[in-house]
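SAMPLE LOG
Freezer: B-3
Tube label: C17
Construct: single chain, 190 aa
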Amino acid sequence: MALICGKITANILKSCDVPLQGGTENRAVLINKDDIATVTYNADAYTVEDIILNSGVSAFQIDGKNNSIAPNSAMVDLEFDNVFDHTVTFKGFDISPYVKKQLNNGKEGRYVVIVENVFKGTAGISAFEVYGLTTGLEFSELTRDANDETTQGAFHFVLTTKKNKEPRLPNPLYVTSYSATKAIVDGLLA
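STRUCTURE (predicted):
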């Protein structure tokens, strides 16, 4: 008999009380993947409850506006497995030398990105998602059109899973409440 590793074990229902809403908040948190010391999961082995960084390092904030932080995940059907592409698209609304230096330095790195959804779910359980936690995200695009009226010349950059794909959809980040979870995310920036 063939090994089957998964099956649906609960209903997937629409909530009339807490209807789904699209969009992302105007901040993403970017972590250099190799700066992560430990990740703590809850009993489901999927939901992240904490991320601890190595001593002396912090995560970095990327500001957005009007849904310019655009996360995406998509299943990729490989010959021997189903895996996921994680992608986060950004607009960089600063073209200073400092920002250019960061983008130049970062184009060879691997990253984990935490995105906050507009939709929070009950008690904030759906507010935060973690992209690239297993394999990391890499730069796949970095462009700037100085004459782009829509962005007023902002950088456009995309972090995605390239060769190495993620084994799952983006991990939820949640512990106890929305405020407790947000405190964990904010603490990564300190």
